[in-house]
Amino acid sequence: MEPTESAAPESRLRLRRRAGAWRGSRWTGRADGRTGAQPRPAVPAAVTDAHAALPLAVRPVPGLAGGDTDTERHVSWPALPAAVVAAAGFLLGAAFYRAYIGHHALFPGGTVGWSLALLTGIIVGHLVMLGRARWWGGTGSGAALTLAVLLLYGWVPAGLVSLTVVVLVGIARRHRWRQGVLHGAVDILGIGAGALLLGAFGRVPSVEEPWRPDTWTLATAPQVVLVAGAYLAVSRGLLWYLHAPRGGGVPTVARSALVRQGLVALALLGIAPLLCVVADAQPILLPLFAIPLVALDSTLWMARARAEEQLRDPLTGLPNRQWLQERIWTALDDAERIGARAALMLIDLDRFRSVNDTLGHLAGDRLLLQIADRLRLALPRGAEAARLGGDEFAVLLPVADSTTSATRVARGLVAALSSPLDLDGLTLVLEASAGVAVFPDHALDAEGLLRRADVAMYQAKRDRTGVEVYESKRDSNTPDRLGLLGDLRRALDAQEVQLHYQPKVRFDGQVAGLEALVRWVHPERGKVPPDEFIAIAESSGLMPHLTEYVLETALGQVAKWRAQGLRVPVAVNVSPRDVHTPGFAGSVAARLARHGVPAGALQLEITEHVLLEDPQRAADTLAGLTGHGVKMSLDDFGTGYSSLVHLRRLPVSELKIDRSFVARLAVDTEDAEIVRCTVDLAHSLGLLVVAEGVEDDETWERLRDLGCDAVQGWLVAAAMPPEEATAWLLARGSRGWQRPPAALPAAE
């Protein structure tokens, strides 16, 4: 396993997201005691009520990733919000003082006053009845009423209306009083901006001298529009600046919601002049405006709800892929700012399709609901989950200590999801596979992190390892590896890929056979490691072409050797994808016949992975090969999973002990015991045993004492081109291979 890619230089990170580097003051979140609670993604809403507007960037949504409607981010009162509140308090205090010394009334009395108070009360009740998660997300009824009072009676009565809404709703929403105070302060500043613009037009309305609508003319319309624009620009601009994430712009998913909510806000604010007309002419009718205000307010909320539904999976209630992409960007910006890592895990359920096929899609949906609930409960503090579609989920760690800690979290989640599930009394076990990608080690953006976690997840799924961390050498889709893939394809077509042959000898010196090993010398890169280009071929669909090339070349060489009287079998490695290819056994038999090579002269080396994806098809293919007389060898024994079970099911005649056990055989007692047990097991099943990677005499002696049948490694010979292998075979003749005299044990 090669080390992960190093992080990009710090300067590159700064250049890539310079807009996100400056962040200034931002809200901080309190820790939620409930595992799995998450804030909403940074998707802004076009808020239209300063008394009750909080952007989606800091609002939880019910049912979203375990988010609780009571879970919220509290204002940490940094410098800017504190300054906003102080400025609003100063302006309001100055206005009250001016009204006091000028003997001005703070609010109209009589029918007008009671009608406005009743309408305000209805609006407050409407906001409270909408529910905790609804009214706080943005309404326009309070804004329309505030603007009407501002135009008619000036900014002191308008400020009182704003404070009334904040205080009354704050009593109903005790846990959000900080946001209420801040929003009230922002609204006061917006009202002040509108009042200043009114003053610039020579309009200074008051309770005693209101700006009566019967004095309005056609020239008044632009003034009303500009005052409303100033009020909205200041209040909404401040709210956006205080709550929205820096440098990210407007997320794509929020743009349509902004347009819809903006249109509804214009409709609500268009009611303000009508409120002024009725308040002046027939104030007793003012409470009737509650009907259109509430109706349009509900329309605004429904527009916001539709926008939120675009970010939520309808089945599980978890966030969806759109939400995840926006949230990853925010998390990466935060991680870069504080110099931390962030990790993304993609989790896929193994064999879930068989549940749908057997029990039906309704049962599958019920299982997904259980999986989603279990995932919520298993999330560590701060982690956020999403469903990407089908049986694929994602978990984001906004802050990860290291790749190791992220891997540990992924293993815990996989273990939690793999425990038995109950469905109407039927116990089901669905194993999960997870891929982990870490910022900035593996990717510097959201798309790259998603793609590389996906690569690691499919690697874990294919190898049945449970959890895999992204490795560039296993990723065939990097630009460099895509170029290498194209070069490999051209090299196969031009027959530039070579086969080298490494002998396997028995302890009496007789040659047991040779293994064909593929080698590629790139015209520009030089020698390309086999593990690198074979991994590219396996993950790209080029593996069948490579296997055909190797089989054709190896069988041609066997035919030449047999013509020279050299009758030694040759082993060729085949991948699980080859074994699962329909007609593979028949194509091997056809090649044997075409080259005139008996089936016994060919040995195919397979690994335990051939049984992991489609066991029945693999068993049928292997049975077909052995039926034609082709011998099978189990390669890399001991490095897979459930080896004893697979050994019983695979029709092999030879077992090869992996070099990882042989390399330390002479110095590691545990490895020596593993080799001894493997040899005894294989012999009890009637199999021959070949040890790979034998490089010294001491290992040779130990393997002979343990009863191994043959060895392969540099002690005997390295892999050789066809000409050298032919010369090596001819030189040994019937006497076989002999150990050099210096390597023989001294005679006693």
UniProtKB/TrEMBL annotation:
The chain crosses the membrane at residues 79-100, 112-131, 143-169, 181-201, 221-242, 262-278. PROSITE patterns: EAL, GGDEF. GO terms for molecular function: cyclic-guanylate-specific phosphodiesterase activity. InterPro entries: Cyclic-di-GMP_PDE-like, EAL_dom, EAL_sf, GGDEF_dom, Nucleotide_cyclase, Rev_trsase/Diguanyl_cyclase. It comes from the Bacteria. Residues 340-472 form the GGDEF domain. Keywords: Membrane, Transmembrane, Transmembrane helix. Residues 1-41 are annotated as: Disordered. Residues 481-733 form the EAL domain. This is Bifunctional diguanylate cyclase/phosphodiesterase. It comes from Streptomyces actinomycinicus. The lineage of its organism: Bacteria, Bacillati, Actinomycetota, Actinomycetes, Kitasatosporales.
